[in-house]
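Appendix C reproduces, verbatim, an entry submitted by the partner laboratory led by Prof. M.T., so that reviewers can inspect both the input and the predicted structure.
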Amino acid sequence: MIGDGFGNIFKIPELKKRILFTLALLVVYRVGVHIPTPGIDTVALASFFNQARGTLLGLFDMFSGGALQRLSVFALGIMPYISAAIILELLTVTIPHLERLKKEGEQGRKKITQYTRYGTILLSVIQGFGISVGLEKMASPGGAPVVIFPGWGFRIMTVITLTAGTAFIMWLGEQITERGIGNGISLIIFAGIIARMPNAIGNTFRLLSTGEMGTFAIIILTVLMVAVVAFIVYMEQGQRRITVQYAKRVVGRKMYGGQSTHLPLKVNTSGVIPPIFASSIIMFPATIASFVAVPWMQSVASAMRPGNIAYEVLYVGFIFFFCYFYTAITFNPSDVADNMKKQGGYIPGIRPGKRTADYIDRVLTRITLGGAIYVSAVCVLPSVLMTKFNVPFYFGGTALLIVVGVAIDTVQQIESHMLTRHYEGFLKKGSGRSKGRF
């Protein structure tokens, strides 16, 4: 039972220590979100962000947990680290040195992590300088400037402050991963998104009390939310299992092999990368237009806002593109087929080698189509709810994919700690295993 599972957590000293350590560092992160960067008129900045929703600034603010809107010391959030990690992942395909490091195991992974840290600092400096220059041009709708004392002094101070904040968040994430439970970077994003839930719930009750939303509408919305979360859980765990048979071989006096196993292919191999990239590309014109008051750019920006047909069509198109693109660079069917052949494995009815690679590629292409449709549907859902049904908060999209994905991963790690010590987990048999098969 779930209650027994939670009770068993505190019977394992190591697991209890890891969970408390993780919670403590997440509290430190949330405290830092409320520490402002010096030299900013916070009231004018908040007014500016109220009219900047639907731009790239709004997307970054979501990943920073509201820190960008306050321009706190954690305003850049963990996005520079994510961007650096994604860039290095893409470069491993084109740079032989990085590709070799990726195959060197633990030592290679440490070197790539070091490169990622350097890239994070570089991107933080660039983004921090860009934000400082942009802030000097910003003003509230009433005309009040956001920066109190503009100039190079403010720019240098802002770059140092924001870069140090991102470096500290990166350190927090690594400490959580190493000494806590779950993936630290993902949990930091998770904490930032979840922190907005009380405000959304408060807005909903306010609309209910004023009569702007009826009780029946709230019930329908609640049922829909539960159904969407269940659907995401099912799809994120869904996989296509390809049967692999290993031939018997004799080593000395012992016989090995002969068993049958499977090759799991996830429906959503690319995770949340496609919607993040798609949002960044499409929202870029709207963000530029917020700094440059040119009529034709304003027209483009208004067309590229969530809820418009042009935005939704381009958004879905880019999601499909990045689903296939990221899957192609992270999963190589030829390498899988070669490794399978070296170990004496084969897919029943399929000739080893190129035929096996072609078969795996064909299956992966088909299930990636289903994954792209699923990600697109979840990401378009917020626009439909907000424009057609006047839902007072943002539900769905990249944020919901991250929240559900991180929750599943963290629960599975807790399950593994408990099961290795012969304790019953949160769920009955089969917990943490994929139920969806395609």
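DSSP finds 18 helices and five strands in the chain. Additional entries are available on request from the coordinating office.
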